[in-house]
Amino acid sequence: MIRKSGLFFLGFFNAVNIFPDTLCINGTVHRMETLLKAGHQAWPPGIESDVFDFLAQWYGPENTITVHTSGSTGPPKPIFLEKAFVAQSAMRTLEFFELKPGQRILLCLPLRYIAGKLMVVRALLGRLDLCTAEPTDNFAFLGQCPANPFRFAAMVPNQVTKLLEYPERFNALGALLIGGSALPAILETELQTVPTACFASYGMTETATHIALRRTNGPGASDFFHCLGGISVGLSPSGCLTIEIPGLNTSDGSGAPLVTNDLAELIDSTTFRILGRADNVIISGGVKYFPETIEKKLGSAIEQPFFIGSLPDEILGRRMVLVIEATPDSLLEKRVAQLLVRYLDRYERPKKIVFKETFKRTETGKIIRQF
Fold first, then answer.
1. What is the distance, to the nearest Å, from the Cα of residue 292 to the centroid of all Cα atoms in its chain?
2. φ, ψ at 23 (rounded to 5°)
3. How many other β-carbons are positioned within 10 Å of the β-carbon of residue 67?
4. Are 327 and 357 in contact (CB under 8 A)?
5. pLDDT per residue over 214-254, tens digit each?
6. CA 98 to the chain's CA centroid
7. Would the pTM count as exceeding 0.70?
8. Cα dihedral sign, 343-348-352-357
9. Which domains does the chain have, with CATH numbers?
10. What letter would DSSP give residue 279?
11. I want to staple 105 with a disulfide (CB 3.0 to 4.6 A). Which of 74, 82, 152, 239 is the partner?
12. pLDDT one-digit tens code per residue, 20-75
């Protein structure tokens, strides 16, 4: 039996049944009771089977779902999110992108993490057609459906990079949400020429994906994130972003604002930009540097993946280094050194260039800053 007691008043939303009795997948409407009774044996291994496994959890007796952090700053850890809170997040996205029943949305994210799960919840609550593609897909099918485009899709930067190899495929995407890791500057530059409305997201597992979006191309493009409805932000005494969301349960159970580890600049209580992670800040010669800010200046100039790190220094305390994912190459090192002079202020320039053949990454594509 599927759950029936799923009528919630979701904050500023109307009463919504978060356990609807049908779901449309790849153009076919399935009755949830039949779907759940069939079990995952009815699905071939792959993303559709993963969708079923999540639905079994969503319609299960518990009032929470279990999700895991990405593992970019430590081992992935489990987090328990109230289903009503997750539904609020889904409804905010439906409202922002004005998604209507029957419209097609593309799920191409792994169901292991909250971003993939939210695509399923959006389809459930919005009565959308959830179209599935394996996360490793080359998206060739997008070139075959311009007459029936996807209204909405979500991807990580690595997938967007792959999609940009065939820019015409963006014609099949109405709106694209990009998350999972910071959007590289060079990628953002390339998105200026595509017809799809692209948005970078800010959020985390604890907030049930994004709490704020910024347009990266076209009208309204901005460096600042804008909070979705009902959400506000502030700054902690240390300058880190704090988040207030109705229904958010912080780790101490107090209901106080969630304090992030991201240093931020605020325009007002709903508009902000991220300067970098507090634990990435480098203090060199008594001066505080934000690696992410420096990386953004270099992002459109250096083609290879890279990050700004530091090494111990007897005089400066720490000295900045530029770490590039590439085989050691004297010509490349010389060219990059010239770019540092061109794009960075004198005191921002790394003191050394380090080559590393392969970076460690999380499953969502975030670079793990180790060398």
1. 16
2. -145, 130
3. 23
4. yes
5. 999 998 899 999 999 999 999 999 999 999 998 886 554 55
6. 20
7. yes
8. negative
9. 7-221 (3.40.50.12780), 281-368 (3.30.300.30)
10. G
11. 152
12. 999 999 999 999 988 888 776 667 678 888 999 999 999 999 999 998 876 555 66
